[in-house]
Amino acid sequence: MTEQQNIAVVTGAGSGIGKAITLALAARGDRVVAADLDLEAAKNTAAVDPDHIVAMQVDVADRAAVDALREQVANEVGTPNILVNAAGWDRTDQFLNATTEFAEKVVAINYLGPVHMCSAFLPAMTEAGGGRIVNLASDAGRVGSAGESIYAGAKGGVIALSKSLAREMARHQITVNCVCPGPTDTPLFQAQDEKLKAALTRAIPFRRLAQPEEVAAPVVFFASDAASFITGQVLSVSGGLTMAG
User: Fold this and answer.
1) Main-chain phi, psi angles of 177, to 5 degrees
2) Does pLDDT of 223 surpass 60?
3) Residue 60 in contact with residue 38, Cβ under 8 Å?
4) Helix, strand or coil for residue 241?
5) With CB atoms counted within 10 Å of each terminal CB, which end of the chain scores lower, N or C?
6) Reading across the β-sheet that carries 131-136, which strands appear in turn?
């Protein structure tokens, strides 16, 4: 992966953790596709480093849209050797209040999104002879989270997907790893109830939220040559919140 410039695709790149990952990969010299449902947000990310980042639109819950992204990336940028699935969505509420529509949306974005992206981009990566996949799950998927049962289930699925893909992709020299953030200072977190935000922050041993850049750092590590012999691993980035999980 060091002989030529890496090409990375990052979903959810318009804000929060996805944006931080995109900027971090670009800062080390990678060519990065900032993919997001919100094209304007993706363009704002790309504007930070237009020499290395190009914005594209995708709805990861829509397989046809994911296939269209794959073709656009292939035609305009090249074959990616790094895929980071960072797009996610949730709304905190009790399980008994969840509608079928809400549940299907959470699963479509948080679980089927990475499934669609991996399914679309892995064939070219296997043909090219190697690569890195990093999936963003959540500590909710490791230890559970009240008010996020469906989200936690979807993220738990991402963890299992990552481990299973790691076994299948090893023969193709493709590593698959998973990063699980705890509470992080993102627009999605800031949209939560104030009391909930305060309670989560107090529960973290460091008594503060993670910054998106602190979650991006291990993602960049997993996408680097330094992690060439690491696959199927799940790393919590939670300030010690789930150290006993």
Assistant:
1) -130, 165
2) yes
3) no
4) coil
5) C
6) 53-57, 31-36, 7-11, 82-85, 131-136, 174-181, 234-237
* pLDDT(112) > 90: yes
Q: Beta 131-136 vs 31-36: how paired, if at all?
A: unpaired
**Per-residue pLDDT at 189:** 74
Other C-beta atoms within 10 Å of 84: how many?
Answer: 32
Q: Which residues belong to the active site? A: 151
Cβ atoms < 10 Å from Cβ of 50: 11
CA 195 to chain centre: 27
More confident residue, 238 or 8: 8
Instruction: Name residues whose C-beta falls within 8 Å of residue 90's C-beta, 6 or more positions apart in sequence.
Output: 106, 110, 148, 151, 188
Q: How much is the pTM? A: 0.93
| Half-sphere exposure in the Cβ direction for 93 (13 Å, CA) | 10
Instruction: Write b or e for each residue in 167-202: b if 16 or more Cβ atoms lie within 10 A of its Cβ, otherwise e.
Output: eebeeebbbbbbbbbbbbbbeebeebeeeebeebbe
Residues 85 and 117: beta-carbon distance below 8 Å: yes
Domain 7-236: CATH class, spelled out = alpha beta
User: If pLDDT is split at 50, 70 and 90, which confidence band does 204 have?
Assistant: confident
Sequence-ordered list of residues with C-beta below 8 angstroms from that of 147, at least 6 positions apart, any chain: 92, 93, 94, 196
